[in-house]
Structure formats: structure tokens, C-alpha cells
Amino acid sequence: RKHPTQKPIELLIDIIRYSSNETDLILDPFLGSGTTAIAAKQLGRNYIGIEISEKYCQISEERLRQDILL
Length: 70
What we know:
- With 70 residues, this protein is α+β, with helices and mostly antiparallel strands.
- The protein is 44% helix and 11% strand.
- It is built from three helices and two strands; from the N terminus they run αβαβα.
- The protein has helices at residues 9-19, 35-42, 54-65; strands at 25-28, 46-49.
- The longest helix is centred in the last third of the chain and has 12 residues, at 54-65.
- The N and C termini lie close together (10 Å).
């Protein structure tokens, strides 16, 4: 876990898959460690994440740069 309230990626994949279509825009106003953005990217959605903490912005960026998104 990279963040104290990090959600399981499987949960976010299900939520995004069933509530949006490919190429839709997913907004996460509390980005945290970027799990929502990673799920959106895996499903072919566009995403915008907003985060006040520079630490968590850096963690999100690192996670999103990985070839295998975890």
C-alpha cells in the first residue's frame, strides 16, 4: 500500500468498467496514490487526478509510468 486509504485496484476497475465507456474521462479529485487513474488507464479511459500532496503526486506519477500497472 502506498497510501493509508488506498482502494483495491480490482474494486476500482469494476466501478469504472460498469459506469463508463472507453475513451470517457474519469475525474478523481482526491488522487492519492493514483489507483483510480491506473484502473482508468488499464480500461482505455482518459483520466484527470487532483492531489494536494506533492508526495502522493510523485507516487502516482511513478506508478503510472510503469509498464505493468499495479
